């Protein structure tokens, strides 16, 4: 049984080899029957397709990285702007409204730096350049549940907490609305004054408890990472400009190649193929006894030299034929 299986497997391999050889022979025969100009065109097309595939892949990677760097640069500017808003709110707005906040029955959210930054960013999004950018100060334990971190964002906070030297994280993630590219930085508690509203419910202003309750946003520690300041942008937005640039460059390359192919074919036909064709016709005529035919070439290049050599050979052939006829007579 095993011997039969081995024999069948061997026969099948032989059949496949025979089919491969047969197909290769058909391809070789087809290539041999092609004209010289067609062969040159096929060679140029194969070279161009290979070069286009390699250069297209490299160009795509370069443009994608460039688009990612461009988005990252914009996000860096926005993050620095949001941090400036946070500092301004803590240093100027909050002290200015402190007396009023103490007597208000509800919490004045404008005194919270995170609230101010988020609201101002919503205003920035109305600009056409940034309408697809999303900003969130994602915290595992936020005062405002609008800032509640999901599992992915909580993992970012954990990474920032575990590695104090880590200043920024970038990458891609999937959301219900599609994939996004994100830039995230840690938000820490820099001063004790920030703990006035976040240490314990007993120490927090009553207006804060009235507005947000006593369950969230407490037990924060000085210097601890409490949130991941994150800006996200849809992946389509990241690569849209890269795709447009890639399409333009590749289209230009294809156009240049087509033009180059036409020029090369024209030059080949004029400088090589037509001249060789005339020589072939003349050689065929001479081979049938039409000695008046001449390899006429006024050029001194290689083909002209070959024509001169053929004319000398024809002259020698004529002399040899005359001598042969005289001897025969």
UniProtKB/TrEMBL annotation:
<keyword id="KW-0812">Transmembrane</keyword>
<dbReference type="GO" id="GO:0016020">
    <property type="term" value="C:membrane"/>
</dbReference>
<protein>
    <submittedName>
        <fullName>Sensor with HAMP domain</fullName>
    </submittedName>
</protein>
<feature type="transmembrane region" description="Helical">
    <location>
        <begin position="40"/>
        <end position="63"/>
    </location>
</feature>
<keyword id="KW-0472">Membrane</keyword>
<dbReference type="InterPro" id="IPR003660">
    <property type="entry name" value="HAMP_dom"/>
</dbReference>
<dbReference type="Pfam" id="PF11845">
    <property type="entry name" value="Tll0287-like"/>
</dbReference>
<feature type="transmembrane region" description="Helical">
    <location>
        <begin position="246"/>
        <end position="268"/>
    </location>
</feature>
<feature type="domain" description="HAMP">
    <location>
        <begin position="270"/>
        <end position="322"/>
    </location>
</feature>
<dbReference type="Pfam" id="PF00672">
    <property type="entry name" value="HAMP"/>
</dbReference>
<keyword id="KW-1133">Transmembrane helix</keyword>
<dbReference type="InterPro" id="IPR021796">
    <property type="entry name" value="Tll0287-like_dom"/>
</dbReference>
<dbReference type="GO" id="GO:0007165">
    <property type="term" value="P:signal transduction"/>
</dbReference>
